[in-house]
């Protein structure tokens, strides 16, 4: 299954609820185990959306792959991944 973000949601990803919507209404209801998320032409993403998206992705039983990720959006996902890594390292 392929989900094109700008066709399904919007080109500006702002809210945690929007990330929940794509998971609750599309990804988790899909019978496909592999879901491809296409971020082509997505213009912006907030830290809140990226955080909730990654939380939901990490808890999903589906295999989720992102493609065509613009640099600014990739950087936001990397910020979340770095925060998660630093939090885990601080616990030890």
Helix content: 40-55%
Shape annotation:
globular
N to C succession of SSEs: EHEHEEHEH
Count of DSSP-assigned helices: 4
Q: Helix/strand/pairing class, anyone?
A: alpha/beta
Q: Major sheet: order of its strands?
A: 1-3-5
Number of domains: 1
Return Rg in Å.
13 Å
Summarize the structure.
By secondary structure, this protein is an alpha/beta fold.
Q: Can you describe what's shown?
A:
This protein has 92 residues and is an alpha/beta fold. It has one domain (2-91). Helix content is 54%, strand content 18%. It has helices at residues 5-8, 16-27, 47-59, 71-91, and strands spanning 2-4, 12-13, 34-38, 44-45, 63-67. The strands form two sheets. The protein has a three-stranded parallel β-sheet with strand order 1-3-5. It has a two-stranded parallel ribbon with strand order 2-4. Helix 2 runs parallel beside helix 3 and helix 3 crosses helix 4 (71-91). The longest helix has 21 residues, at 71-91.
